[in-house]
Write a structure and sequence with these properties.
Elements lengths: L3 H19 L6 H4 L8 H22 L20 H6 L16 H6 L14 H12 L37 H4 L28 H12 L10 H13 L5 H9 L5 H10 L2 H14 L22 H12 L4 H14 L11 H4 L10 H20 L18 H12 L1 E7 L18 E7 L5 E4 L7 E5 L21 H8 L7 H14 L20 H13 L4 H7 L1
Antiparallel strand pairs: 1-2, 3-4
Length: about 550
């Protein structure tokens, strides 16, 4: 009889081959258009996100007045408001040649090398650099071939693609938007019919049942059981990131007891190296760093010499199998969740170690820092590209600009704070440590405030004030306002709410990807409509639902995988 752990991992590994040869890929018409860069789903998703955040707002703000369908007179026969138009160019030639910046007249114009566009002044160097990078990367452009003609009023999903996104400026149809697969509740699934046999009755092997169904559908058989020496190496590398020692291999090969594999897994999960191995995944998501690229000379004020305290907290939390909902909550709002235990506050390094820029009193600079927090929190924890709604409603997902500024207001109501490590540290007037090396790098509440929408992302063009709250598409009805301090604790609780359909799915998918080399959802930080659909949807939902039911235990999840 094949041991439980051997069978499970063999089935899972073989299923990965099936998953990525037979799964239906996402509808990315723009990504597959002639001339666009090709690549895996994550690369295409990143390029589309780059366009939405860095390129489209520039074109709208600086070019559309003279080079769009809405212009009073289209200058030079050039339109820049659609993918086909920008590539076709105008009277002087092609404005954009994907992959070839030197042949793209748009770059010549913004550099003032031939034409001088925009005519009222040169664009900032970093914007020109963004345009050059976009063209070099293939000029991926998700815009329709031509702007849509005005449609009858009525709002809703006017483009008929079922995502609830209104293409003509009308209100988002939230009911339609919530029908997207990732916004549906993640529920424990019934075992597939083929799995109702004695060999698949054990709940600890439920995932094998779902994979076996897929293998059968593709006329494939499970891989043969691996030998025990290979098995201990696989389990050791997966659990702790290190190979087993010769002594450990010999002991495992000599252990013929029926629970040898289970005890091996338990030993690996109890190893201190477990937290170190899996902290690497998390610290990458948290953009962990101890200094910043823009440090100039001897100015160390923007360094994080004690960032390692946050790193060590993450490692210890994972080793202790801290429930994931608590793990998230403390990193967003430890000072609010456990106000009587200051030792938890080091977890706030998740926010406190974010980028800081010079001229931090400037509204433009503050807006960039808020954008980092919104982007890091939403992509890491709920797998949505909310930062794409900074300048306009999200072009693909049901995320309004008001959603973005509702979350940005939470971070605008906080301040990065270098809390002294002890009473000996020299302090300035506001209680911060004068020397970064004598501080813990965290955040704390400042004066709570709601933000205006910055129209088209321009901090000088203010729209309506938006109350701090959670994303509407993930809220049942009208989202509740965050009115306790900055709103970080309310935000954390909204994210880890058991009824939130994304949080468990996202972390389960990340653990799966780091265990088997391929995720179930190929775009781990984008579960929106332009992300990939899951290759094994029922399996993902079953794992996510039971992950929550088991108390958000990451070690229990690892044990099953």
């Amino acid at each position: 009889m094949v041991p439980q752990f051997v069978a499970g991992r063999c089935l899972a590994l073989l299923a990965l081959i099936v998953a990525f040869s037979a799964a239906t890929s996402f509808d990315a018409t723009a990504a597959d258009a002639p001339g666009d860069s090709s690549g895996d789903a994550s690369a295409d998703s990143a390029r589309m996100e780059f366009f939405e955040k860095k390129i489209r707002p520039v074109l709208v703000q600086h070019c559309y007045e003279c080079h769009s369908a809405d212009a009073k007179s289209i200058k030079g026969g050039l339109r820049l408001d659609s993918r086909d138009a920008i590539r076709h160019g105008g009277d002087s030639g092609k404005a954009v040649v994907p992959g070839d910046p030197s042949a793209s007249l748009l770059l010549e114009a913004v550099r003032y090398e031939s034409y001088e566009m925009p005519p009222d002044g040169k664009l900032a160097p970093h914007i020109v650099a963004d345009l050059e990078q976009w063209i070099r990367d293939g000029a991926i452009d998700p815009r329709a071939s031509a702007p849509r003609a005005p449609e009858p009023s009525g709002g809703g999903d006017v483009d008929g693609d079922g995502d609830g996104i209104a293409e003509n400026g009308d209100a988002i149809d939230w009911d339609a938007a919530r029908r997207h697969w990732a916004f549906q509740p993640a529920l424990q699934q019934k075992l597939p019919a083929i799995a109702h046999s004695a060999s698949f009755a054990d709940a600890s092997r439920r995932l094998d049942a779902f994979i076996r169904v897929r293998l059968t559908k593709e006329n494939l058989s499970p891989a043969a059981a691996t030998d025990r020496q290979t098995l201990i190496r696989r389990l050791s590398f997966d659990a702790i990131g290190l190979p087993p020692t010769p002594v450990e291999v010999d002991a495992f090969l000599a252990d013929e007891s029926p629970d040898a594999e289970e005890r091996l897994v338990d030993r690996l999960l109890a190893s201190p190296r477990y937290g170190e191995r899996w902290a690497r995944m998390w610290l990458d998501l948290a953009r962990y760093g101890e200094d910043q690229a823009h440090i100039v000379g001897n100015d160390r004020s923007l360094c994080y010499p004690n960032a390692y305290l946050y790193r060590d907290w993450v490692i210890a939390a994972l080793n202790a199998d801290m429930p994931y909902d608590q793990f998230v909550t403390l990193q967003l709002a430890a000072d609010r969740a456990t106000p009587d235990d200051e030792t938890d506050d080091v977890a706030l390094g998740f926010l406190g170690l974010g980028p800081k820029y010079y001229s931090r009193g400037s509204l433009e600079v503050m807006a960039e820092e808020w954008d980092d927090r919104v982007d890091t929190v939403t992509r890491t924890l709920v797998g949505l590209t909310v930062a794409c709604a900074r300048c306009h409603d999200h072009k693909f997902d049901a995320i309004a600009t008001e959603d973005y500024y509702a979350l940005a207001g939470v971070f605008a109501s906080t301040e990065m704070f270098n809390r002294p490590t002890d009473d000996k540290a020299e302090k300035n007037k506001n209680g911060q440590a004068k020397k970064p090396e004598q501080s813990i790098h965290i955040v704390r509440d400042a004066n709570p405030r709601d933000l205006n929408v910055f129209v088209r992302g321009d901090v000088k063009s203010k729209g309506d004030v938006v109350p701090r709250r959670f994303l509407q598409v993930l809220s049942p009805g009208e989202p509740r306002k965050f009115d306790r301090g900055s709103g970080r604790l309310d935000l954390a609780r909204s994210i880890v709410d058991a009824d939130n359909p994304l949080t468990a799915r996202v972390i389960v998918n990340r653990i799966w990807a780091n265990s088997f080399g391929q995720p179930l959802v190929a775009t781990p930080s984008n579960f929106g409509t332009h992300g990939e659909r899951p290759t094994h949807g029922e399996l993902l939902d079953d794992l996510a639902a039971r992950f929550v039911a088991d108390g958000w235990s990451l070690k229990s999840l690892h044990r099953e995988l």
